[in-house]
């Protein structure tokens, strides 16, 4: 076999490889040739820099509202979450964005409130809670129906977390717009029943959802129990259940919150008590008939009006109807009490089941479990309170009462904690639970409980608990003075039950409970809310004392007397620190005073009311005087002072101690002139009961209080201050004094008018004799001290008011002692008044003095005044030159004013008066060392004399 030929392993050269050209193909371009032609195209790239400034308002990430709203529809959950947070940040930085783009924001937010991602829903809830307080009801009202639809949709969602989050969002709307949400409750309430059925552990609930969705709107409703077996087979399988007790309690709490918006819950607040008192006070006649407990059981403690259109109703349809007919059924608003009864029948089994599942029999339950028990009980109380006004709930009330005694009462009372630590949260909530359970039992007693109902063994634990609470067993006696005031609030909420059962109790039991109430009332702090409830309870006892079952009870009469006597004492303890409670007590006493059948009881508190105005303590040493103490009346607002004075009007008569206290109050400078005016009217209406001497003495005391407090600010009117600031202060004080004097003059005028009206039926001597001695004493005091000289005119007006102005002979009937002092008093007043008079002005009040002069038919008064003027001029020659000149000038001006008076013209024409006037002119003209101003006045006096006497 020959050798094989060796293979050729030589590689071809790559540098000079020549490609074979195909037929009809162009040769490729030369790679070594540079292409000098090119094409260009513009690129549009959006700006994404966070540093770039934009014209619109942006948030901290430099995003506008338009950008954020667009991202709410993004498929990514994180992008939607960031967009929601961005909107919240944008609104917080620029609040005006919300008002400018409210529609766009709300329409986009509502789309993500039921988002599948829990973080997006949580951020949306935070955004809504921030936006709602920034909007009022009018602005938000167009969007409430939209949110209600989405919330209802969320409550029927397949995911449990979305259903519960929709309730949280609903709570946010209830907190901000309760009235608006209540208008759309027909969309929401049925869904609560549906939610409770989903988490129910038994089959006792209704078989068909009450949702407003189209799938459930046509199903028949059976609210009385389970369906027959034949119908149960046709029902579809129930939706997946959460089977969580916490979830069910959460739903019940949310439902209770919504029902509180729709139903007026039992209200024991101060505002409700005051509205009840004012309502009764405004009635002119207090009803004296027997209290009808069947019609108004809790009228004063709680408002019973129930909002009739509360829940939604699905029309009952026949199972044989066609699907076309069923699809046309629309939900309507529940209006009849029977439909409300059906709602309670559905909800109460669920509440009982929750109560039993929570485990109330566990002695070591936590605080969270206690809160859940309290929520269930409050919802039961709300439903029972809602049903009690319906006349068709007697049978249901009986069934509910049996269930309550069977399932709830065996666990009563709860004592978690210790009375030695009454402020611990466990002890406080256990007291709240016991109080709520007792109130529920009180509702089940009915409108008119009989002795048989009260003595029922099932109610005895609650009755014993009420007595133990009033006796103070909820708080340890060792620490009661420092702690436990908050616990007493729960005790005060039980007082309405005592009023309910009191007519049916035995005498011994009634006495023990009322004695316990007295102990409880005395231990309450005067400024606490339980004390206000005790005061209102006393008012309730006063209203039902006409009940024939109580009128013969001795212990009840004793507590009525004790309660009335305690109210004035409480007024004094409160002082001016709690005006609301003070007004409450005064209004209660006014309702008692207006009732003529209780006049003897009302008169018994007059002495207890005296320290409220003024009192004098008993001295330790008989030789010394007691201490004068003003009550809180002076420091109260004017409206409360007026109400307190109204209390005196309804007394059959005012005793001397009360009159003395009113006189002392009127003498206080702290009392306003308006209140003094009020007292004048009050006393004038009671003058027949007081007697003329006491009434006149009272009027004089008020007059003296005014004259002693009058300041002589007018004497400084012509003086000027060197300092500008002093000048301003002087002007302010002068203005205030003018206003004050005008008020005093109004009071004096009214006082004089009241005295003058007595002359229609009373002779002059009976009026003027009692006032003569005090008036002379007060006039002498003013003349000697030269202080408050201008108050003399008030005393003159009092004297003049006792005279008949049309009978000049009565002037001579004035007592001799008073007639002797009148010329000096009138001249002193005219002389001092002239000191403040400029040459161009008139004397302050010349009218009163002229009236006395004209009333004297013998002209002795005017003659004595002119003689005093001459004597004053002569006696001034011994004074210094400055003093003498001032006296001369004052007398000249006084004489000029008397001569210018038109009323005295006829009197001045008499010969005897004319001689005295010329004598006075001659005396004044013969003065030596006259100043230029005196010469001018003498010339003016001479001119007036010539004009007067036609010389």
UniProtKB/TrEMBL annotation:
Residue intervals of the Pre-rRNA-processing protein Ipi1 N-terminal domain: 140-215
Protein name in the entry: Pre-rRNA-processing protein Ipi1 N-terminal domain-containing protein
Domain TEX10-like TPR repeats residues, every copy: 564-939
UniProt keyword terms in alphabetical order: Nucleus
GO cellular component, one term: nucleus
Similarity-based family: Belongs to the IPI1/TEX10 family.
Compartment(s) of residence: Nucleus, Nucleolus; Nucleus, Nucleoplasm
Annotated segments matching region Disordered: 1-30, 711-739
UniProt-listed Pfam families: Ipi1_N, TPR_TEX10
């Amino acid at each position: 076999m020959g050798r094989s030929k060796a293979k050729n392993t030589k590689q071809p050269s790559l540098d000079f490889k020549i490609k074979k050209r195909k037929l009809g193909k162009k040769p490729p371009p030369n790679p070594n040739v540079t292409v000098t032609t090119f094409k260009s195209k513009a690129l549009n790239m959006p700006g994404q820099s966070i540093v770039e400034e934009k014209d619109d308002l942006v948030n901290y990430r430099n995003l506008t509202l338009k950008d954020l709203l667009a991202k709410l529809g993004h498929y990514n959950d994180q992008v939607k979450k960031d967009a929601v947070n961005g909107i919240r940040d944008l609104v917080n930085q620029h609040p005006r964005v919300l008002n400018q783009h409210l529609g766009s924001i709300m329409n986009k937010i509502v789309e993500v409130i039921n988002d599948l991602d829990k973080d997006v829903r949580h951020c949306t809830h935070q955004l809504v809670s921030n936006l709602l307080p920034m909007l009022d009801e009018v602005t938000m009202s167009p969007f409430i129906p939209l949110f209600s639809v989405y919330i209802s949709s969320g409550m029927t969602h397949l995911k449990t977390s979305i259903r519960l989050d929709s309730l949280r969002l609903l709570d946010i709307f209830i907190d901000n717009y309760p009235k608006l949400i209540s208008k759309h409750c027909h969309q929401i309430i049925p869904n609560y029943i549906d939610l409770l059925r989903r988490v129910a552990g038994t089959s006792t609930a209704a078989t068909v959802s009450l949702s407003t969705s189209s799938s459930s709107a046509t199903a028949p409703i059976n609210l009385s129990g389970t369906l027959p077996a034949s119908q149960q087979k046709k029902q579809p399988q129930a939706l997946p259940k959460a089977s969580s007790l916490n979830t069910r309690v959460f739903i019940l709490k949310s439902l209770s919150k919504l029902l509180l918006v729709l139903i007026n819950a039992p209200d024991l607040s101060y505002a409700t008590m005051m509205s009840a008192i004012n309502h009764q006070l405004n009635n002119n006649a207090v009803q004296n008939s027997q209290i009808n407990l069947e019609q108004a059981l809790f009228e004063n403690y709680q408002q019973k009006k129930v909002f009739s259109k509360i829940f939604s109703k699905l029309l009952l349809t026949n199972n044989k109807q066609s699907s076309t007919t069923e699809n046309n059924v629309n939900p309507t608003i529940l209006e009849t009490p029977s439909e409300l009864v059906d709602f309670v029948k559905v909800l109460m089994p669920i509440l009982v089941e929750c109560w039993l599942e929570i485990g109330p029999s566990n002695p070591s339950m936590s605080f969270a479990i206690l809160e859940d028990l309290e929520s269930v009980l409050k919802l039961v109380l709300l439903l029972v309170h809602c049903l009690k006004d319906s006349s068709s709930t007697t049978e249901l009330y009986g069934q509910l009462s049996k269930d309550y005694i069977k399932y709830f009462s065996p666990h009563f009372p709860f004592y978690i904690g210790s009375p030695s630590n009454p402020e611990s949260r466990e002890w406080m909530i256990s007291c709240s639970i016991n109080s709520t359970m007792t109130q529920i039992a009180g509702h089940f007693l009915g409108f008119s409980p009989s002795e048989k109902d009260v003595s029922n063994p099932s109610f005895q634990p609650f009755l014993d608990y009420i007595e133990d609470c009033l006796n103070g067993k909820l708080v340890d006696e060792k620490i009661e003075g420092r702690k436990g005031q908050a616990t007493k609030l729960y005790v005060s909420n039980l007082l309405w039950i005592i009023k309910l059962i009191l007519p049916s109790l035995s005498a011994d039991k009634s006495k023990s409970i009322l004695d316990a109430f007295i102990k409880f009332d005395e231990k309450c702090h005067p400024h606490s809310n339980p004390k206000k409830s005790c005061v209102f309870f006393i008012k309730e006892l006063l209203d039902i004392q006409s009940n024939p079952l109580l009128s013969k009870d001795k212990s009840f009469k004793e507590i009525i007397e004790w309660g009335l006597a305690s109210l004035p004492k409480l007024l004094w303890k409160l002082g001016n620190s709690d005006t609301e409670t003070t007004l409450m007590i005064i209004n209660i006493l006014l309702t008692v005073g207006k009732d003529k059948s209780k006049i003897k009881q009302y008169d018994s508190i007059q002495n207890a009311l005296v320290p409220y105005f003024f009192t004098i303590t008993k001295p330790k040493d008989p030789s010394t005087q007691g201490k004068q103490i003003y009550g809180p009346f002076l420091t109260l607002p004017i409206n409360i002072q007026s109400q307190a004075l109204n209390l005196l009007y309804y007394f059959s008569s005012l005793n001397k101690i009360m009159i003395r206290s009113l006189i002392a109050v009127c003498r206080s400078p702290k009392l306003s002139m308006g209140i003094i005016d009020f007292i004048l009217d009050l006393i004038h209406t009671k003058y027949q009961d007081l007697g003329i001497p006491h009434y006149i003495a009272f009027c004089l005391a008020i007059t003296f209080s005014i004259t002693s407090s009058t300041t002589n600010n007018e004497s400084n009117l012509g003086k000027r201050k060197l300092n500008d600031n002093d000048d301003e202060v002087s002007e302010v004080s002068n203005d205030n004094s003018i206003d004050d004097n005008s008020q005093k003059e109004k009071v004096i005028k009214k006082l004089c008018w009241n005295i003058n009206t007595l002359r229609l039926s009373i002779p002059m001597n009976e009026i003027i004799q009692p006032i003569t001695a005090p008036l002379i004493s007060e006039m002498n005091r003013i003349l000697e001290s030269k202080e408050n000289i201008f108050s003399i005119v008030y005393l003159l007006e009092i004297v003049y008011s006792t005279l008949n102005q049309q009978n000049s002979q009565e002037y001579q009937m004035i007592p001799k002692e008073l007639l002797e002092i009148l010329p000096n008093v009138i001249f002193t007043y005219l002389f001092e008044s002239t000191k403040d008079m400029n040459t161009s002005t008139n004397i302050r009040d010349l009218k009163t003095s002229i009236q006395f002069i004209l009333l004297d038919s013998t002209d002795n008064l005017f003659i004595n005044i002119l003689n005093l003027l001459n004597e004053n001029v002569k006696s001034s020659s011994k004074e210094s030159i400055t003093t003498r000149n001032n006296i001369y000038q004052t007398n000249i001006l006084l004489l000029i004013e008397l001569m210018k008076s038109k009323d005295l013209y006829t009197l001045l024409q008499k010969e005897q008066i004319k001689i005295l006037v010329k004598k006075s002119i001659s005396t004044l003209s013969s003065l030596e060392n006259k100043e230029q101003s005196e010469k001018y006045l003498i010339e003016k006096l001479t001119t007036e004399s010539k004009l007067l006497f036609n010389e």
